[in-house]
Amino acid sequence: MATAAQAMTALDRLSRAVSAWVDEVRQLTQPDRIHWCEGGEAEASDLTAQLLRSGELQTLDATHFPGCHLARSAPNDVARVEHLTYICTRSRDDAGPNNHWMEPAAAHAKMRELFRGCMRGRTLYVIPYCMGPIDSPLSRCGVEITDSPYVVLNMLIMTRAGRPALARIAREGAFVRGLHSVGELDPERRFIMHFPEELSIESFGSGYGGNALLGKKCHALRIASWQARTEGWLAEHMLIVGLQNPQGETHYVACAFPSACGKTNLAMLIPPQSMPGWRVFTVGDDIAWLHPGSDGRLWAINPESGYFGVVPGTNPQTNRNAYEMIRRDTLFTNVALTADNQPWWEGLTDGKPVIDWQGRPYDPANGPAAHPNSRFTVSARRNPAWSPHSEDARGVPISALVFGGRRREVAPLVYEARNWQHGVLVGASMASETTAAATGKVGVTRRDPMAMQPFCGYNFADYWQHWLKVGAQLQHPPGIYNVNWFRRDAQGKFLWPGYGENLRVLEWMLDRCAGRAGAVESAIGWLPRAQDLDMSGLDVSAGSLQALLSVDPALWRKEVTEVRQYLSQYGARLPAALNAELDAVEKRLGV
Ligand code: GTP
Ligand code: SPV
Ligand code: MN
Questions:
Q1: Which ligand is nearest to the CA of 237?
Q2: Regarding the domain delimited by 236-305+388-588, which CATH topology (the fold level of the hierarchy) does it fall under?
Q3: For residue 373, which of 111, 246, 410, 436 is within the disulfide window of CB 3.0 to 4.6 Å?
Q4: pLDDT of 324-343, one tens digit each?
Q5: Which residue CA neighbors atom 1 of ligand 2 most closely?
């Protein structure tokens, strides 16, 4: 690590715009020191050593978990805070009914008072980062200023951070400004503010995930969705996965599932034994930037370079690749510990917890041992299924887009939209049960269009219009599908085994795209018949499969009424095409 002064002069020459802003923030926040992040292993190990000394990190059992550490967040700072997250546009309507809104000047004034002097006694870190391959014209850069070395450590894994990013910023002159301070971690003094018109973010009072790693949800979704609209592309809460069939052809699929609804798992899927010859390659597990290509197809890059993934539920049966991936060089947040200092979480069959995620002796009366939103941070390259095309400047071509939620009833296992316009309605109608990824009640079904309810940086009505426009531009649009891995029986048991077995459903989609697979038309779209899915070696009863592949007209009529009511809040701004598609579904359902 160069001394701050040396680094600053060298980097200063590269970018005056960045240093002018850093100086402004220095005067406001009054840090003791400034550290410019350059990236690289040495910097990460220095930071780790520092966090170990201060007790903010602890080393895990080096025999079984080499290079792994545990961080514990404040107990009241364990997830995204949607109720404290704002879009601050000049016009309230530009933020839309889907966002909390604050007038930009009022928001800046509020945040200025919170940030004033907040870094006294602390180090101010400057993290220049690039979202996307460093040499891709589709990538976008940002700079996060933070007083949390834990955030720096995460950003070094999750983004291409450091010197090359700063060089690109100096060349391009443009970057997203993200100012972050953990403040006092007081939930009463916690705000995540976005200023899309200024390409800036101000986050105070939380050190956790999507609230604090500003390159992720704040930049790569909320700000980027706004940029994407003005520039003609889409920033989406989607995984990107490559599926190679036994004939050796690879097709890429991008899937939007809400938080903690299976993106990382699907992105790293392991083909079931009964599907020999299939291979899976992960391009991204959380965010996709989609661009119409000059060939009329839709192309995707993953702006991130690491995974900030849900730990509970990870085991050799559900996701062996993830289980192996997080056994070295992984930063764990809020998991439990075994007596021999190994990380432990619900869903592991081996070992038992003795210390819970808050560092207390484990007592089941206190709830789960690992926090349900405990996370691993790990470099994407540690994934055995990592796709080298993750680094392709032009991205990968997308054959199918998939929407999906967590719904115990109503939504069948899979169905195909009739066309792009109908697909936009399918995405806009998504609903899902809430999860521990955000604070608030878990298990409540809510509308979550395109899995973007917490992440769209502007009015959903304008966003759907933009989706329609992008689709109209594509000569070869991907097929659009909807899935639900989470249907349950009357006893509350999942009807579908999920995880690796989901490949059977993806195979059907790809065969549909290639004009090879059968389907039956229903009011809501095309569904596979039982014989259209490869069910070899799978233990799902005919009755369960029947339930998974059926559309209950009564339930769906109710669903259509709810969707209509939901969409009506967007008023005259709602694209007429969506109402027309909804009318058509209703008509097909009959009365
Ligand atoms: P975020 O990182 O919050 O955006 O979540 P995600 O969408 O990447 O979800 P993830 O893959 O981490 O899965 C969340 C939870 O759902 C985990 O506990 C998984 O074990 C569980 N899960 C994932 N896929 C399936 C599936 O196919 N079936 C079932 N039943 N559970 C699943
Ligand atoms: C999500 O909540 O969708 C996540 C975790 O991927 S966070 O980074 O906290 O947004
Ligand atoms: Mn996510």
A1: 3
A2: Phosphoenolpyruvate Carboxykinase; domain 3 (3.90.228)
A3: 436
A4: 999 999 999 999 999 999 99
A5: 259
